[in-house]
């Protein structure tokens, strides 16, 4: 029966790719099926591996075969969403890259064995602790170690990337699948940090919902700051997880509320109402198909990205990316005497062209948008600190209190003093 892998990529094409990689890397390389069986490969087994398998076949079988180890490593690589470096039963290093299609692991590319440091007695001592090996056989294994190629950790990283660049484009939907796996891991790490933060605070049980973080999320979305918006969203999700535990229904309800908050912020920030409603409806439809907390959180984060994208006027992808980078720079440096010329240089555009492009994309001039960012930050400081108005004006980038007051009233209809009351 033909391996499923060959329905995705022809056997001949796969062999040609593996042969090219083997010729360039000079490391054994194999294509495996989903169970860890070798389908094809290049590079003979090393003398060390042959001796290890021969001498310790019964003992190593008790700990799991190489095939089982490779299948387990491939699954781990799929969960990570990238190539995975691991050690085998003999403490030799390998790199495995998962071949994934539509959430299904159907094979892997395995490179190794290799070492990332000069072999010493430590490696063999560990083997003799785990297995029964005679002194004579230990010496034989030590001599065979000279046949194992040594590469640097940096080289192992480059090989991992090379595997991704080589095989990901060949497999339908693989790039999206691996990217989402990586996004889940990063997001869950941020959420876990937030949960631990809430756990470390005394009497969290009696604390109310962190409204200030929700307000901060609204400000970051309206500023079109994707990275900071994601950060605050995941902090809010950390509170939701801590409060709701593992109850997926509670988390779904909170996610719907957060989607509503994001939708309102996007529309206030200039997004088309119809587009924002479509994004919300799409989230609600996808929410029902989420199987666990990880999928739900990733879906909400993607929805956040969609809302921020919707706040940009349609233009070419290149120009959209330029404006996003410019706004990111502005939100990071608004408290400095920032100029249009400096920001244009940051995104490598002529100042005049950048000014025109910015106005077209954002619906306001560079200066107006910069003042908007500064006023939003000053509103937060006025509401949550006892700093003087002049100190707040300087902190958000205004050089004079009188000018700050005029701009603040233009945007809010109130003076800073009136707003603070």
From TrEMBL:
Gene3D superfamilies: Homeodomain-like (1.10.10.60)
Residue span, HTH araC/xylS-type domain: 324-421
Cross-referenced SMART domains: HTH_ARAC
Highest taxon, organism lineage: Bacteria
Entries under InterPro entries matching the protein: Homeodomain-like_sf, HTH_AraC, HTH_AraC-typ_CS, PocR_dom, Tscrpt_reg_AraC-type_HTH
Protein's UniProt keywords contain Flavoprotein: no
Keywords: DNA-binding, Transcription, Transcription regulation
Pfam short name (any one): PocR
PANTHER family, per the entry: ARAC-FAMILY TRANSCRIPTIONAL REGULATOR, HTH-TYPE TRANSCRIPTIONAL ACTIVATOR RHAS
Protein's UniProt name: PocR ligand-binding domain-containing protein
Organism: Laedolimicola intestinihominis
Lineage: Bacteria, Bacillati, Bacillota, Clostridia, Lachnospirales
């Amino acid at each position: 029966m033909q391996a499923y892998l060959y329905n995705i990529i022809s056997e001949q094409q796969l062999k040609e790719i593996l042969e090219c990689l083997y010729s360039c890397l000079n490391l054994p390389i194999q294509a495996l099926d989903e169970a860890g069986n070798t389908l094809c490969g290049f590079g003979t087994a090393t003398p060390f591996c042959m001796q290890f398998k021969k001498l310790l076949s019964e003992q190593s079988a008790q700990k799991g075969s190489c095939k089982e180890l490779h299948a387990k490593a491939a699954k781990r690589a799929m969960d990570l969403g990238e190539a995975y470096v691991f050690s085998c039963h003999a403490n030799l290093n390998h790199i495995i890259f998962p071949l994934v299609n539509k959430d299904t692991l159907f094979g892997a590319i395995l490179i190794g064995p290799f070492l990332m440091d000069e072999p010493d007695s430590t490696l063999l001592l560990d083997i003799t602790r785990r297995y029964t090996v005679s002194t004579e056989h230990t010496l034989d294994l030590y001599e065979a170690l000279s046949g194992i190629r040594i590469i640097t950790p940096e080289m192992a990283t480059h090989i991992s990337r090379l595997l991704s660049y080589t095989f990901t484009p060949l497999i339908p939907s693989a790039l999206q699948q691996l990217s989402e796996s990586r996004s889940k891991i990063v997001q869950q790490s941020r959420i876990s940090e937030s949960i631990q933060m809430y756990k470390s605070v005394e009497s969290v049980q009696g604390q109310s919902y962190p409204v200030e973080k929700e307000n901060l999320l609204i400000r970051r979305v309206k500023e079109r700051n994707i990275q900071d918006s994601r950060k605050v969203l995941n902090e809010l999700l950390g509170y939701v997880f801590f409060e709701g535990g593992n109850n997926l229904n509670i988390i779904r309800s909170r996610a719907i509320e957060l989607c509503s908050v994001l939708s309102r912020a996007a529309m206030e920030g200039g997004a088309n109402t119809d587009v924002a409603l479509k994004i919300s409806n799409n989230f609600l439809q996808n929410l029902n198909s989420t199987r666990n907390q990880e999928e739900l959180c990733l879906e909400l984060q993607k929805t956040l990205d969609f809302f921020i994208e919707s706040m940009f006027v349609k233009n070419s992808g290149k120009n959209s990316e330029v404006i996003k980078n410019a706004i990111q720079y502005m939100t990071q440096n608004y408290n400095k005497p920032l100029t249009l010329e400096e920001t244009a240089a940051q995104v490598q555009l002529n100042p005049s062209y950048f000014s025109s492009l910015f106005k077209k994309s954002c619906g306001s001039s560079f200066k107006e948008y910069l003042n908007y960012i500064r006023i939003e930050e000053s509103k937060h400081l006025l509401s949550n600190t006892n700093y003087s108005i002049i100190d707040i004006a300087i902190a958000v980038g205004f050089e004079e209190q009188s000018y700050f007051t005029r701009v603040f009233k233009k945007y809010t209809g109130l003076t800073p003093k009136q707003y603070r009351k």
